[in-house]
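explain this:
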Amino acid sequence: MKKRPDSKEPGSAHEKGDDSEEKTQ
């Protein structure tokens, strides 16, 4: 859910964390 907005925002560390959670779900 947060992966989409994070992708545009400058936060590679945060993006990676969200991506991992989304993939797990």
